[in-house]
Every structure is written in structure tokens, then in C-alpha cells.
Amino acid sequence: MSPQTVYPFTAIVGQDDMKLALILNVVSPGLSGVLIRGEKGTGKSTAARALAAILPMIQVAAKCPFQLDPAETGGHTCRDCPRASCRAMVMAGEPPPMEERKVRVVELPVGATEDRVVGSMDLERALKEGEKYFEPGILASAHRGILYVDEVNLLDDHVVDVLLDSAAMGINTVEREGVSFSHPARFTLVGTMNPEEGELRPQLLDRFGLCVQVEGVREAEDRVLVMDRRASFDEDPQTFGSLWMDDSKDITEQISQARELLPKVRIEHELKLRIAEMCLQAGVDGHRADIICLKTAKTLAAWQQRDAVNRKDVERAATLALPHRMRRQPFEQIVQKAAPLGLA
After folding, report:
1. Which pLDDT tens digits describe the chain residue by residue (344 residues)?
2. Active site residue 288
3. SS3 state at 90
4. What stretches of the chain adopt beta strand conformation (E)?
5. Which of 34, 47, 152, 273 could be joined to 210 by an S-S link, Cβ 3.0–4.6 Å?
């Protein structure tokens, strides 16, 4: 999809929670993706597709089916690559040529099978010739990119499990009859769903790092603005896109700076206690919510160009990481009951 045909991310009216959750996930892919819940026609798919256009360019091994970066080349993935030229270069100790590429948005069809998602092994070739042959799947194409899953609630639960496992672990492993192959699979997982069409199981909801609820803009003037901008884009996408180019460049630069700053962000013990208390009050299962809240708070601080997490970061992180995991109480009560920690 060419840049001229993508609606600018910065031109989307409202939907601040959705845009923030998407940006946080590209700054810190370890957040394990974002689930966008809402009614039809609220810009869910538009935002997901527009996100890639504002991301910094990446260095990729030329024609690599796994989107490997320079540091990842030469390893087992290259040695077992289905492309003979890759294997030959590795054996000869030659570094593969590199190219600069825009981040990809890979869309997962609702009817995708597990083999189409994770890839497939040619067992006959492995048994007869003693050679691994792996046909890359969607996860290989999505490495270092954005994996967009529309109507994720309509996918087979097992396929969703595979996606979430890869998003959390950063690696995809396929094993068939004792023959295995693995490759990096770090991507930003963006799932959208309309709750009216069915819900995800709580176990799957919990695996999404962040979750936001979106709805149509309620102010009449803002709705007119949505109409005007969309009409201008449909009439002349290139001219409309140029109007938002400076804003897009600013976000691209801020994302790059946040990525560099993130490893240096620190958080005080008292704020970690606040995270733990809110998670306990929410009645979440396990410790994933605590960890995601911590990562989100740090990412928020980095996004705002700070090297230390503050109270507002923690509370903002909780609004993104806890609501879809809660079991017992409204979130507003949780924030109130966390106040005795002395941080309100």
C-alpha cells in the first residue's frame, strides 16, 4: 500500500486512548500488543494501517523472508533459510546485503489456518534428503512490523493463542514429527473487535497487553471535522497527506527518542507498590497485569521524554492495562482504594 493511499495517523479526530496505546506498543513491543474494542466505523482499522507510515525506517537483509536486521543474520535462521542464496552466504561467511525499508503492516485473514500463520515444514524433504525446508508464514512477514488482526474475536482460539505466544516470546517455533525450525517473530500485535459480534475468552483477553474501548465522536462539530477530512483525503490523498507531513515527522522523531530513552527509565519502589495494590484490588489472575502496568508506565515516561516514572504514569498505565483483566470492581473504585499508599 503506497503512502499516498494511507490516511494520516495524525489526522484522525479524537480517539486519544487508541492512538496512545498504539504508539506505546511500537515504542515498547514487549507490551504484547493492543486490543481495540468498539463499534463499527470508529477508525480502528484506519489507525492500525496508518501507524506504520509514521514509524522510522528499518534496516533489513535484502529480500529476506524473515525481515532480519543486521544483528540477526548469520544465525540458525539463515543457515536453515529456504533461500539457497542465504545459506550459501552464511557458509561462505559473507554478510548479506542490506536495504532500508518502511515498516510493514501484515493483515491476518479471519479464515487463516495455523500453518498459514506459523509456516510449514516439508517433512518429505526432511526425511528423504535430511534437509530442513521451512515455508515462512505470516509471522515471518510480520517480524519487526505490525500484525493487524481485524475481528480477532472471530478467529479460532488456537490461532489466537499462537499469535499471543509469539507476541510475548518474540520467537516462532514450528515442530512437526521431531523436525523443528524457529525464527524471530517480534511484532506489534493490533487486534480489533466489535463486542456485539462476540467476546474473547478471559484467558485470551488477559494475553493482550493493553486494551482500549473506542466509540464514535459525540460532538457535532467534531463529527463534521471527521467528514471534511475524509472527503478531502478521498478527493486528493497526496495533497491531504502533505498537510499532515510535519506532524507525522514530529511523531516519528518522538518515537525514535522514546525508544532510546526507554532502557534508562527508572521507577521508585513506592510506585511499584501502587501498581501491585491496584492489581490486587482488580482481582487479576497471576502477575501479567503487574508486569504490563510496570512496562506501560515506563513507556509513558519515555514517550514524554522523562527518565523517571511519576504517579500519573502509573495511573494512566492502569487505565490501559487493567480494565479488560478486572474481575470484581469498577476501575474508579480501585484507584480510590489505592490512595492509602500516600501517592494520590
Report:
1. 444 478 888 888 888 888 999 999 989 888 888 998 887 777 777 888 888 888 888 888 877 888 888 778 767 777 777 777 776 777 777 777 888 888 888 888 878 888 888 887 766 665 666 566 778 888 888 888 888 888 888 888 788 788 878 877 888 888 776 677 788 888 888 888 887 777 777 777 777 889 998 887 778 988 898 899 899 998 998 899 889 888 889 998 999 999 999 999 999 999 999 999 999 988 888 888 999 999 999 999 999 999 999 999 999 999 999 988 876 444 444 444 444 444 43
2. yes
3. helix
4. 34-38, 58-61, 98-101, 105-107, 120-121, 134-135, 146-149, 171-176, 179-184, 188-193, 210-214
5. 34
CB 111 within 8 Å of CB 151: no
Residue pair 27/264 in contact by the 8 Å Cβ criterion: no
Element of type H or E holding 133: none
Residue 297 burial (CB count, 10 A): 28
- Choose the catalytic residue: 83, 87, 116, 288: 288
Q: Do the Cβ atoms of 143 and 58 come closer than 8 Å? A: no
For the chain, the farthest-separated pair of C-alpha atoms sits apart, in whole angstroms, at 68
Angle (nearest 5°) at CA 204 between 202 and 209: 105
Strand, helix or coil for residue 175: strand
Domain ranges, ordered by start, for the chain: 3-55+102-214, 263-341
- Cell match 533461500: residue? 83
Same fold, 3-55+102-214 and 263-341: no
CATH number of 263-341: 1.10.8.80
Phi, psi (5° rounding) for residue 182? -135, 150
